[in-house]
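Onboarding guide, step 5: your first structure request.
Type a short instruction followed by the sequence, for example:

Predict the 3D structure of this protein.
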Amino acid sequence: MDLNTVWFILIAVLYLGFFVLEGFDFGVGILLPFLGKTDQERRVIINTIGPHWDGNEVWLITAGGATFAAFPHWYATLFSGFYLPLFLILLALILRGVAFEFRSKDENPKWRTFWDWAIFGGSLVPALLFGVAFTNIMAGVPIDANMTYIGGFWNLLNPYALIGGLTSLLGFILHGAVFLSLKTDGEMMTRAQDAARKVWLPATLVLVVFIIATYFFTDVLQQLGINPGPIPIGAFFTMLAAGYFVYTRRSGWAFFMTALTILFATATIFMILYPRVMVSSLDPAYSLTIYNAASSPYTLRVMSIIALIFVPIVLAYQAWSYWVFRKRITAKQELHY
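The system replies with structure tokens like these:
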């Protein structure tokens, strides 16, 4: 295994971590205006992700930085061709971060309601557009021989990509509802469990439609064969298992299964891509790969040394933070958000 492959896997792992961890953040933010009936209940909901949401976004920042350093041509084509949707994602994440900090600055109900809906919008837009973006990357976009995206914004909003966006959106909402049922108690926990039960079926149906569509709109048969292997198949069966645990109100196992579903589904996208990083719909020869889009071998070696030193430290710190804030949030506790 060469360093090009190693860094492709590392970037895939960073996105896996981002979608699994930030996925429940997005889901909680989307559910906030609907499950929180009072200001105190909404504060409880926000406090479930308060210690984690900004740390979870580090995975995305690191993935972008690693892409820029390891595969600069991938970074250039992706961020120029997908400029508008990525800009919308950035605006949504900024609005969401500001909302978390600003909503408690004034006790006026209208002020807090505005920022609660800002959290909703700032969570919904990335949850939808990340699915759209990765579906397009996997299916293929118009990239010419100069590694330049020559399509427009509306090329990205094709039916298959929108199915992918809806799949990620519903998957994150389900993930967030199950997380809330783990982190709250009493009536709020019951509402979160009921929300998970309502979302599971449409999320599963859309996932099935997305899987079927993938066989028509991508070259998955050429990349993985008729039998795609345990990881893609596992995504479907862990989703079914999540439904069983959701309906039996076993939230711990349900959360584990929704996390596995997101992990397996994201891993499948990278499996279909490899050794490509962006597929050209104009000509397969124009596709960006881990070789023609990569930095020099020396750069990859230096990056590998740095990653071996600092990545374990970051992982240990984040695991420690989740352990420290592992207890349920209740209305009786002092709330700050």
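Each response can be followed by summary notes, for example: The chain has a mean pLDDT of 92.
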